[in-house]
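Thread: quick sanity check before group meeting

JM: Hey all, I'm pulling together slides for Thursday and realized we never actually wrote out the predicted structure for the chain we discussed last week. Dropping the sequence here so it's in one place. If anyone has concerns about the input, flag it before I start.
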Amino acid sequence: MQEKIIILDFGSQTTQLIGRRIRELNMYCEIVPYNKFPHDDTDVKGVILSGSPYSVYDSTAFKADLSEIRGKYPVLGICYGAQFMAYTSGGNVESANTREYGRANLTFIDNQDPLLKGINIGSQIWMSHGDTITVLPENFKITASTDDVKAAAYHVENENTWGVQFHPEVFHTTDGTKLLENFLNICGCIKDWTPASFIESTVDQLKKKLGDDKVILALSGGVDSSVTAVLLNKAIGKKLTCIFVDHGLLRKNEFEKVMQAYESLGLNVIGVNAKDRFYAELAGVSEPEKKRKIIGKGFIDVFDEEANKLKNVKWLGQGTIYPDVIESLSITGTTIKSHHNVGGLPKDMDLKLVEPLRSLFKDEVRRVGRELGMPEHLIKRHPFPGPGLGIRILGDITPEKVRVLQEADDIYISLMHEWGLYDNVWQAGAILLPIHSVGVMGDERTYENTVALRAVTSADAMTADWAQLPYEFLAKVSNEIINKVKGVNRVVYDISSKPPATIEWE
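JM (edit): ok, ran it. Output follows.
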């Protein structure tokens, strides 16, 4: 079994970030709803309580019974977690006169406290709360303060329980990783969670689980499904059959390039050219959700037809990753989102699921891919929507519109690689707008298409900021597209952040 840290999620936007920081310290962790602590799990080494959008004194606040956790495991409460433990132990938590948000510095630190070992006075922290602890219970000892927050950190005497009012998981807390590492040391963690150890244990588990059974896997060209394929191939070899469907909405020459990459990895891949089928089903359809459903159903139908040509297949492989698992349940346990990568399974397929990456974050998937020796262009590939260019062509879809967008997008992404910008952004792509504008080319007036360029920076796609690409680069891209892509006479750049805008336009 795998030793682990349990993170109880009280609804904070940064709960996943806590998990990623713990994983970066080579310690396995699991995020569970605040009221779903796995009391029967003997491999738990410690517990972290996350922040929350609620106040501890609200009637709607999430409350957990910690009586069988505190004293049995080392516990670290972060923000709401710290306030919750103080409040439920007899302390006072009140609304602050002003919301405490942003950078602050520690003005007092108990150097003898093991959680704060190696952290010095003046260390920058990040606050984000509207409440503050005004009175601590008797056995709670202040271990750190700022100018404005006396109880910035505390330790419960004679108990391995700590609370911090600030967020050690965020980048702006300069010694946050050190604090979390100190907590892992308090927990006695071995910290042996590495890509190599994951591969070794996962391949061994897959061999035992699958035996001589056959598996099919839908490939998208993205990092998740690609790493899933290589892991399964390492475990069961030719008993894995991969299916890569070209729905005619991929990037320029992507189908051929990705097929070559997969074959070079020794994968057993069936490539299906279904362009004409998808174009026919999408003809005249403009409504975004309807386009998504047509593309999703069409993909399933093609995949199902190919799968039915194979004999004795018992398993469906999927590139589900840990954020998918976390987001598929609300913290009340209600399913809010389905994350089956193929968009849902036909009932008559009757296949069991195998999801070897379901415990990994996206950055860990990439680390595993590198450890497996996969080519960088597959590992570093930007996220690309399942419906592909179908949701980057606003309005109805035609083969000619696909051609225009593929050409424009290819220029954009190729120049992004050439200028060394590709790896600096989370996601980039071109969008074909359903508007025409007047232009002048030579001595003639034109009335042609407008292309929008989109590039964002992000850590996990939950929030994103528009990438501040160099003006010279944008000028070069615009000039190249307008001169080389027939049908385009105007290029614009999207400077919207998420929220309020989404990364994709549809």
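AS: nice. The two ends are 43 Å apart (CA to CA). The chain has a mean pLDDT of 90.
JM: adding both to the slides.
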